[in-house]
Amino acid sequence: MATLSSLGIGSGLDTASMLTQMKAAEQTRLTPYTNLKSGYENKISAWGKISSALAALQGSVKKLNGEAFNTLLVSENKAFQATATADASADAHDVTVMKLAVSHKLRTSGYEDANKSLGETTGSTRTITITQKNGKELTVELKDDETSLNQMAKAINKQDGDVRASVQRTDSGYQLVLSSRTSGTEGEMSVSVEGDDALGALLNTQEGGRHVDADNNDATITTEPGAKDGMISVTNAQDAELKVDGIKYTRSSNNITDIIEGVTLNLKSVSENGASEQLTLSVDNSAIKSTLQDFVKQYNALLTQTTSSSKYVPNDTSGLTDDQVAKPNQENGALMGDGTLRSLVGELRAAVNDVYGERNADYSALTSLGITFDATTGQMTLDEKKLDEAIADDPDQIGMMFKEHAGKQGLASVLSDIITKYAGDSDKKIDGVIKGTTDSLDDQVKLVKEQIDKTQKLIDAQVERYRVQFQNLDATMSKLNNLSNQLISILSTV
């Protein structure tokens, strides 16, 4: 196939340039479709930005529906550390820590070689079973050559159970150490060996382990429990004991969540001299202010986005003749005149300008908190001094304005419903209006792309026809030129 640049050689005409111009003219047939596609894509992009702004606003709204008014300041204490959730209430409690929960730990006597087999050569396997008081069991089977300290630790850890094993080197030799992962008496371990009496004599432990005199070559203290056990107690299993407001509690863990509602107590040490410490939970009013500041910020950001997307700029008609039509201004928003966007903005502005909470209350509208609105743009302005005064005066009443109260929706729940209606809720598997709109736009983009592809094929075919016609013209003109030259040559000889 001849290239575009080879055209015109036979005819002497600039058919290559002519074909290029004709191709450019044909390509203009795509313009309506590419403009349509660009318009759809711009709308999808605009809705995406609005959805992101709605999601950010929803974050603040959810906090105003509870968390902002339930955030508590927790006192610092020495014997324990407390954390509070939104379910906790402002209050004070006396807490005394008598005992900390301790995990059970056992060890063997010391041996010179951690790789030496300690069991009998039986020609079969032996079984080690470690049972915790809560009923959990860990069982390992060992061959004759797997009874060294290192091999036993490896076999136990391979089970990935509630007991961990390690081999530690001490002044008295290598020791196998078993540590319960479960704290308190629920994690107390007993050890039994079947199929190897020699190994059983070293490991069998049923009463918590022997207690020894470390200064006397680990001599067993016969007056203590476990005097007949094979393994030595490093730490006895022990439950935590504490008093809260004069009531005694026993727990297997130092992390306690079921005594004070919404409060986690992390016990760190025994109370000095048995004296109680006061745990104080007080309302953090600064959380109300910071959340309202963020709410104003996110609301204004959303309106900025919706205003940009719906912006209308008059067409520039200067220089046009009477028979010319002005084209839409390129600065117009992608969603200019969109009914869905108008409905969203209208519902939001109506919600934030409404009255909530108790009838005749001092704080029942955003304006009473120092939040004013621009009549044209709807943007909020926050008077922080007025807000501080309102929070100091009656934070509970402000909470009633935002949260559901006495069967009536608060501002936060009303806004949340509006945002969910348009942006959806992934947790509740709700698709909003915006998703339906963008899905429809996506379908339109696909249809336009198909039309562009079809039209491009038609253009390519038409340009190819032009090329073939010009090529034929070249061939014909070349023949005519040759014939003309021959005639001139013949006539010149007559």
TrEMBL record:
GO terms for biological process: bacterial-type flagellum-dependent cell motility; cell adhesion. Residues 313-333 are annotated as: Disordered. One of its GO terms (cellular component) is bacterial-type flagellum filament cap. It comes from the Bacteria. InterPro entries: Flagellin_hook_IN_motif, FliD, FliD_C, FliD_N. It is found in: Secreted; Bacterial flagellum. Residues 237-482 form the Flagellar hook-associated protein 2 C-terminal domain. Residues 11-104 form the Flagellar hook-associated protein 2 N-terminal domain. Residues 313-332 have a biased composition (Polar residues). The keyword Secreted applies. Keywords: Bacterial flagellum, Cell projection, Cilium, Coiled coil, Flagellum, Secreted. Homopentamer. Required for the morphogenesis and for the elongation of the flagellar filament by facilitating polymerization of the flagellin monomers at the tip of growing filament. Forms a capping structure, which prevents flagellin subunits (transported through the central channel of the flagellum) from leaking out without polymerization at the distal end. Required for morphogenesis and for the elongation of the flagellar filament by facilitating polymerization of the flagellin monomers at the tip of growing filament. Forms a capping structure, which prevents flagellin subunits (transported through the central channel of the flagellum) from leaking out without polymerization at the distal end. Belongs to the FliD family. This is Flagellar hook-associated protein 2. It comes from Mixta theicola. The lineage of its organism: Bacteria, Pseudomonadati, Pseudomonadota, Gammaproteobacteria, Enterobacterales.
